[in-house]
Design a protein that fits this description.
The structure is a single chain. This protein is α+β, with helices and mostly antiparallel strands. It folds into 2 domains: 7-81, Helix Hairpins, CATH 1.10.287.110; 89-157, no CATH class. It has 6 helices and 7 strands, in the order H-H-H-H-H-E-E-E-E-H-E-E-E. It has helices at 2-5, 9-13, 21-33, 42-59, 62-81, 124-130, and strands spanning 89-92, 97-101, 104-109, 120-123, 132-133, 138-144, 151-157. Strand 5 and strand 6 form a beta hairpin. Bound molecules: zinc ion. Its main location: cytoplasm. Pfam families: DnaJ (PF00226), Zn_ribbon_CSL (PF05207). This is Diphthamide biosynthesis protein 4.
Length: 169
C-alpha cells in the first residue's frame, strides 16, 4: 500500500490536481499558518514544514510541476505492472457509468477509497487520446480520483470508431 498511500504534493497542500498557481500559493500560506509549533515535537514540525515548502516550490513552478506530474504517473504506471501486491487496481471501463452530456460522453465512477461521488471521470476524449495500448487489442489509462490520491488503471477496448475528421497520422 506504500506507493498509493504516500502523500503527494497535492495532498500535502490539499489542492486539486488542476489547481492554479494562485491556489497553490493560498494553500501554502494557509498550511504554514495552521502549524502550531509543538515544543515536544520539533523534528516532526520541521519535517512537515519542509514537505509543505517542497510541495509549494514544485507546484508553483509550471516546469517543475509538469515534471512532477510525469513522475507521478510513471511511478503509478510502474507500480501497476507489479502483479504481486501493491499494484494499481485494474478496473474495467464497463464498471463505469456512462453519461452523455452536450454530445460528450463521460464515464463516471465513485471512488472505492474515499467514496467520493464520481471521483473518477473519464471523457471520451481522454480515452481516445490518452490511452496506452496494452498489446492485446485493448488500452489502459491511468487516472486519479478527484478527491483523494487513489489512482486506478482503467482497461478498455476501442470505443467504436471514435476516430473522426482531422485525425490524420
Ligand atoms: Zn478518492
Amino acid at each position: 500500500m506504500t506507493s498509493i498511500t504516500q502523500k503527494t504534493h497535492y495532498e500535502i497542500l490539499e489542492v486539486e490536481r488542476d489547481c492554479s498557481v494562485q491556489d497553490v500559493k493560498n494553500a501554502y500560506r494557509r498550511k504554514l499558518l495552521n502549524i502550531h509549533p509543538d515544543k515536544t515535537n520539533k523534528q516532526l514540525d520541521s519535517d512537515i514544514i519542509a514537505k509543505i515548502k517542497l510541495a509549494h516550490a514544485t507546484l508553483s513552478d509550471p516546469q517543475l510541476r509538469t515534471k512532477y506530474d510525469d513522475e507521478l504517473i510513471q511511478t503509478y504506471k510502474k507500480s501497476g505492472l507489479i502483479s504481486t501486491g501493491e499494484g494499481l487496481d485494474i478496473v474495467n471501463l464497463d464498471d463505469f457509468e456512462y453519461v452523455e452530456e452536450d454530445d460528450m460522453g463521460n464515464f463516471l465512477k465513485d471512488c472505492p477509497r474515499c467514496t467520493g461521488e464520481n471521483g473518477f471521470v473519464l471523457t471520451e476524449d481522454d480515452l481516445a487520446e490518452n490511452g496506452t495500448p496494452d498489446g492485446f487489442g485493448g488500452y489502459n489509462i491511468i487516472v486519479q480520483c478527484n478527491a483523494c490520491s487513489l489512482w486506478l488503471k482503467i482497461k478498455y477496448f476501442d470505443l467504436e470508431d471514435e476516430e473522426e475528421e482531422g485525425q490524420q497520422v
